[in-house]
Amino acid sequence: MTHIITSLCIRDGACVEVCPVECIVPGIPEEEWPLYYIDPDTCIDCGACVPECPVEAIFPEEDVPEEYQDDIQLNYDYFTDGPGYSALE
Ligand code: SF4
Ligand code: SF4
Q1: How do residues 42-77 score in pLDDT, each as one tens digit?
Q2: Are 79 and 42 in contact (CB under 8 A)?
Q3: Which residue ranges make up each domain of the chain?
Protein backbone atom coordinates (compact mmCIF):
# COMPACT_ATOMS: atom_id res chain seq x y z
CA MET A 1 0.00 0.00 0.00
CA THR A 2 0.93 3.61 -0.37
CA HIS A 3 -0.42 7.08 0.18
CA ILE A 4 -1.71 9.04 -2.80
CA ILE A 5 -1.62 12.76 -3.62
CA THR A 6 -4.80 13.90 -5.35
CA SER A 7 -5.52 16.78 -7.70
CA LEU A 8 -6.38 18.97 -4.71
CA CYS A 9 -2.61 19.54 -4.36
CA ILE A 10 -1.53 23.20 -4.55
CA ARG A 11 2.21 22.37 -4.71
CA ASP A 12 3.27 24.13 -1.50
CA GLY A 13 5.71 21.37 -0.59
CA ALA A 14 4.73 21.01 3.08
CA CYS A 15 4.46 17.23 2.86
CA VAL A 16 8.00 16.83 1.53
CA GLU A 17 9.48 18.20 4.74
CA VAL A 18 8.08 15.45 6.95
CA CYS A 19 8.42 12.31 4.85
CA PRO A 20 10.96 10.06 6.59
CA VAL A 21 11.84 8.19 3.40
CA GLU A 22 11.88 11.22 1.07
CA CYS A 23 9.48 9.67 -1.41
CA ILE A 24 7.42 12.79 -2.20
CA VAL A 25 8.55 14.84 -5.19
CA PRO A 26 7.23 17.79 -7.20
CA GLY A 27 5.96 16.98 -10.66
CA ILE A 28 8.34 18.34 -13.33
CA PRO A 29 7.59 19.91 -15.74
CA GLU A 30 4.63 21.42 -13.93
CA GLU A 31 2.60 21.83 -17.15
CA GLU A 32 2.69 18.08 -17.70
CA TRP A 33 2.75 16.88 -14.08
CA PRO A 34 0.81 19.48 -12.06
CA LEU A 35 0.83 17.76 -8.66
CA TYR A 36 3.37 16.50 -6.16
CA TYR A 37 3.63 12.70 -6.32
CA ILE A 38 4.36 9.90 -3.87
CA ASP A 39 6.57 7.01 -4.97
CA PRO A 40 4.39 3.98 -4.18
CA ASP A 41 7.36 1.61 -4.03
CA THR A 42 9.08 3.63 -1.31
CA CYS A 43 6.21 5.00 0.80
CA ILE A 44 6.03 3.18 4.14
CA ASP A 45 2.47 4.34 4.87
CA CYS A 46 3.51 6.19 8.02
CA GLY A 47 0.84 8.86 7.50
CA ALA A 48 3.08 11.75 8.57
CA CYS A 49 2.35 13.74 5.42
CA VAL A 50 -1.43 13.71 5.79
CA PRO A 51 -1.86 16.31 8.58
CA GLU A 52 0.80 18.57 7.01
CA CYS A 53 -1.22 19.16 3.85
CA PRO A 54 -3.15 22.46 4.08
CA VAL A 55 -5.74 21.29 1.56
CA GLU A 56 -6.11 17.66 2.70
CA ALA A 57 -4.97 16.33 -0.65
CA ILE A 58 -3.28 13.16 0.66
CA PHE A 59 -5.05 9.88 1.38
CA PRO A 60 -4.13 6.26 2.02
CA GLU A 61 -4.64 4.54 -1.33
CA GLU A 62 -7.64 2.59 -0.08
CA ASP A 63 -9.34 5.75 1.19
CA VAL A 64 -9.05 7.97 -1.91
CA PRO A 65 -12.49 9.51 -2.51
CA GLU A 66 -14.40 8.44 -5.60
CA GLU A 67 -13.89 11.74 -7.42
CA TYR A 68 -10.11 11.45 -7.13
CA GLN A 69 -9.72 7.81 -8.12
CA ASP A 70 -8.04 8.78 -11.40
CA ASP A 71 -5.24 10.45 -9.43
CA ILE A 72 -4.08 7.12 -7.99
CA GLN A 73 -2.51 5.95 -11.23
CA LEU A 74 -0.79 9.32 -11.72
CA ASN A 75 1.29 8.77 -8.58
CA TYR A 76 2.45 5.42 -9.97
CA ASP A 77 2.95 6.77 -13.49
CA TYR A 78 5.19 9.63 -12.42
CA PHE A 79 7.82 7.12 -11.30
CA THR A 80 7.44 4.70 -14.21
CA ASP A 81 6.44 6.76 -17.27
CA GLY A 82 7.43 10.19 -15.95
CA PRO A 83 10.77 11.57 -14.75
CA GLY A 84 10.38 10.46 -11.11
CA TYR A 85 13.39 11.25 -8.93
CA SER A 86 15.58 12.08 -11.93
CA ALA A 87 13.82 15.44 -12.33
CA LEU A 88 15.36 16.54 -9.01
CA GLU A 89 18.93 16.07 -10.18
S1 SF4 B 1 2.79 8.17 4.26
FE2 SF4 B 1 4.82 8.51 5.21
S3 SF4 B 1 6.25 7.48 3.85
FE4 SF4 B 1 4.35 7.70 2.70
S5 SF4 B 1 4.59 9.62 1.57
FE6 SF4 B 1 3.55 10.12 3.51
S7 SF4 B 1 5.21 10.71 4.90
FE8 SF4 B 1 6.16 9.60 3.18
S1 SF4 C 1 1.30 19.37 1.37
FE2 SF4 C 1 -0.53 18.93 0.11
S3 SF4 C 1 -0.70 20.72 -1.24
FE4 SF4 C 1 1.37 20.77 -0.37
S5 SF4 C 1 2.63 19.71 -1.94
FE6 SF4 C 1 1.99 18.18 -0.41
S7 SF4 C 1 0.11 17.28 -1.26
FE8 SF4 C 1 0.48 19.19 -2.37
Answers
A1: 999 999 999 999 999 999 999 999 999 999 999 999
A2: no
A3: 3-88
Atom of ligand 2 nearest to the CA of 24: 6
- pTM equals 0.97
Residue type at position 37: Y
The helix (run of H) or strand (run of E) holding residue 37 is strand 36-38
46-60: buried (b, 16+ CB within 10 Å) or exposed (e) per residue? eebbbeebeeebbbe
Instruction: Please provide the CATH number assigned to the domain covering 3-88.
Output: 3.30.70.20
Determine if ligand 1 sits within 6 Å of the CB of residue 38.
yes
Identity of residue 15: C
Nearest CA to ligand 1 atom 7: 19
Distance 73 CA to ligand 2 centre (A): 17
Instruction: State the Cα–Cα distance between residues 35 and 58, nearest whole angstrom.
Output: 11
